[in-house]
Amino acid sequence: HSAVKSYNPIFESTVKLAFYHISFKKIDGKLMDIIIKALEEELGEQIYQSPLKLFENIEPDSADIAAFAFAAEQTSLSLFELYLTLNELSKYKIYVNESHRSNLKINQYYMYFGVALKKWLSIARNKLLHRIEYFLDKDQVETSLSATTNNKFTSSSLDISNCFTQMTQFWRRLAWPDILGAIVYLIKMTEDTANATRLYAILMEEKLNAKKFYDTNDLSFYTQELSLTVNNIERIRESFKALPIELSYDKLLVAAEKFHPIAVVDEYRKQIETTVAICSQDITDRIYRILSKVITNMEMELKQYLFHIVEAPEASTVQDTIQPLFTFLDNQLLPYTEYLIRQNVTRLLELIWAVLIDQLLCEVEDVTSPKSIASYIRLLKALDGLVDYFNNEGHYLPKDMLKTEKYRLVKKLLKYQSTDTQSLIKLYYQEKVQEQDRANSSNQSDLGKLYCRAYYHAKEETLYIEIISCKKLRPCDSNGLSDPYVELQLCPKFLYPHIEKQQTTVIKKTLNPQFNEKFEFRLTEKECNLSGGIVHFIVMDHDLMWSNDFEGEAFLEIWKITGINNNDNRAIDELKQIELALTHPKVVRSRIIEILEQRTTDKVAVDFVRRRRETENQ
């Protein structure tokens, strides 16, 4: 600094000599020769190895971590001071003439410290592991001295978080100049801290287990201890998860993309993010496992309260039947909401919610004890009440956590069970239309396709259907072909009781039949607009000797047909062909059929299920 600010101006003004430029070049050559020789004597030939090569040879951990750390620390501290000095000195190369800067030996000073950095990271790792055990021992003393306090953490989690902060500070001071090398070392730091995080979580759980936590049926004496355990583990998980961000890994990767193949950089990014994600998930799973003990102890009572909701007299209100469950949950959750941090309260609520939904699903799917529609309506309202309870300000389990796949299934089944038979049959046909639409959009129609046109003539009160053709039908005969024909009928039958089924002629020996046949159905416009009206196409293979074979079926919603609710006056021949993917009823399990099957005293349900089961079995 003095040479730049004081000496160099004097020499340049008096004798026209670039003092700083000459001096720095002389010092650069001699100093780096001395340092390289000293490093070689201290660290051996490894100073010439790349970061990737260095980490190929994993040094065994010392049996005595503390002794290892102390023995290596003195030498490593001196090396670190030397590294920082050279790092600072290298910044002054900007005052050397630009044409000479690239040839300076100090440009590569960091390359000889790779093995030293590996040792620094090893020391940091081993000291961290040692401190985890030390801080946990210290925790035991502090907890026993302050058992009456209402702290949500013990000191160990704060101490370990501070260790992570110190590692971040070390990394920033290091300011490793080689971007790709820095990424390799950062990955190593991330892996080491991931292992330390896992160790802390394991030891915390072992402490809890040592007190017979998993063996007891009375958790009242363990509430605070359990809460401290999962709170501490969560704090360390959050500290670890933030570590790569604090280490500015993303900036490193972005900088690396300017000089190295993107595929290589993406692999490094994936390695870092995968390490963080896997460790974070492992720790989260451990927290859930500890909290699940709470649920195990209350699971039987939860089931009993749900049973009372399900079996309550029909005259009972939803509020009367569900309030005892809410009171029980309030009493059970009160001590945990006092001791647990918000994230762990949420996890506990998630586990309780999962048990309730599982039990509700069992009740809904239980075919051995069918219930009245009124009972299912009450259960549906109770489910809404449970959502409100878990989503209120006191608990606030977010609705996206509440509305899981299993919840949506329970909700759907309860709606089905609460629905009268005719409406349920309409819903069934809507499901079939949706299934067909998915097959159409994905172009995955293994059974082939049907092509038709449809038009409603309002003045004539006539629905015209033209069956044009089928393509790529599956062969049903031994000759590899089929003898197809198409049946068409308006469904559900209870909407159109006066309309008879019609069918095309049989086309022999083909998988791509051309029908070009037109059919008429006398319907009023009101009948066309009935909710749930469907044109049902059934493609069959005609067989003289045996029963006819089922090829596939398709559905067309009547209200969407041209001429209904619009003034399109084109002739049917001018309309665009409608393409319908053929489906089979047994490909997608229908919960509606299963529910209708339970309604053994309902003739409409029995007849409908019989016809659909016959189709499924073809």
UniProtKB/TrEMBL annotation:
Q: Where is the MHD2 domain positioned along the sequence?
A: 319-428
Swiss-Prot/TrEMBL GO biological process terms = exocytosis
Q: What is its main location?
A: cytoplasm
Q: Which Gene3D superfamilies match?
A: 1.10.357.50, C2 domain
| Example of a GO cellular component annotation carried by this entry | secretory vesicle
Claim: Aminoacyl-tRNA synthetase is one of the keywords in the record: no
Q: Which residues form the MHD1 domain?
A: 80-204
- The organism's superkingdom is given as Eukaryota
What keywords would UniProt list here?
Cytoplasm, Endosome, Exocytosis
PANTHER family this protein is in? UNC-13-4A, ISOFORM B
> What is the name listed in the Swiss-Prot or TrEMBL entry for this protein?
BAI1-associated protein 3
Q: Which organism is it from?
A: Rotaria magnacalcarata
